Amino acid sequence: MRLRIFTEPQQGADYDTLLKVAKATEDLGFDAFYRSDHYLAMGDSDGLPGPTDAWITLAGLARETSRIRLGTLMTAATFRLPGTLAIQVAQVDAMSGGRVDFGLGSGWYEDEHTAYGIPFPKEKFGRLEEQLAIITGLWETPSGEKFDYEGTYYQLKDCPALPKPYQERIPVLIGGFGAKRTPRLAARYADEFNVPFGSLEDSKRQFDRVRDAAAERGRDADELVYSNALVVCVGKDDAEVARRAAAIGREVDELKENGLAGSPEEVVDKIGRYGELGSSRIYLQVLDLSDLDHLALIADQVQAKLA
Fold first, then answer.
1. Helix (H/G/I), strand (E/B), else coil: 64
2. N or C: the chain end with fewer CB closer than 10 Å?
3. Strands 225-234, 279-286: parallel, antiparallel or unpaired by DSSP?
4. Helix 125-140 and helix 82-96: axis angle, to 10°?
């Protein structure tokens, strides 16, 4: 089981804060640093000092870290055109020496689109599917050949399909709870399937759907990595758990029900139950980015006890 740190910078974090968390992620032995792709704070947060762009952030971190994987849960397809996004991700992959993972989702938060003048199309899933076809097609096109694409939403003609990523294949992440289209899309394009903030029951159901979709496509379902994203709140005692829960505006009982919360032993046990379902990576949603002691505790008392 690998643990990855997952941040939500739209809630209020500048680049320097993210850099501190990323460096702690690397120094403490975690597998990866991930971030969301949002431009507007949610809930009661004022979002100060303002949003940061996911791929600009990862470009900076690519040059200031050396080991950890870097990625998004999930890049919003509504924010960027597929051709330019393929360039951006390939460039960051090169800047990192081949440490990028690429999570792509359809985009869902209409308010942030309205706030920043970003079109919010009605038909988002079809656009997502075409973006995956284009981006992976551009990366896979042999050097010296051109890439063409004629879709409903996007058209490319005589594209040189450059630059190429540093990696032979950038791992593609797809996630969500869709019963039919999402599993089929994952079976076709994904290297990893992620269930975001789902229960054990939800995770099993969705993993099974993806496995079935892979089999229908003639693909070995075990080729895919299965993972979960869950909010984390760990403390060495009840008082510390309660303090950390209060700092992020959550209740302890709710966090224990819907995330990974409690003592290190409780969290190790719950992670193990996700592992029994086939999950091999857990993305720990860390909401208080000033509490680096939290990361140190998780590294020492949780990560160290996982196989």
1. helix
2. C
3. parallel
4. 50
Q: Answer whether 163's CB lies under 8 Å from 91's CB.
A: yes
Confidence tier at 307 by pLDDT (50, 70, 90): low
DSSP, res 36: -
What distance lies between CA 83 and its chain's CA centroid?
Answer: 21
The model carries a pTM of 0.97
Q: Name the residue among 6, 11, 61 with its Cα closest to residue 30.
A: 6
* Six token digits for residue 33: 């640093």
- The encoded tokens of residue 27 equal 């120094």
* Cα(131)–Cα(188) distance, integer angstroms: 13
Specify the residue for token string 């046990």. Answer: 269
Half-sphere exposure of 166 (CA within 13 A, CB side): 14
Q: Is 75 exposed, middle or buried (0-12, 13-18, 19+ CB in 10 A)?
A: buried
Over the stretch 143-169, which tens digit does the pLDDT of each residue have? 999 999 999 999 999 999 999 999 999
Please compute the mean of the pLDDT values over residues 5-10 and round it to a whole number. 98
Residues 6+ apart with CB under 8 A from 10: 36, 38, 39, 40, 41, 42, 47, 51, 112
Q: Counting Cβ atoms within 10 Å, is residue 247 exposed (0-12), middle (13-18) or buried (19+)?
A: middle
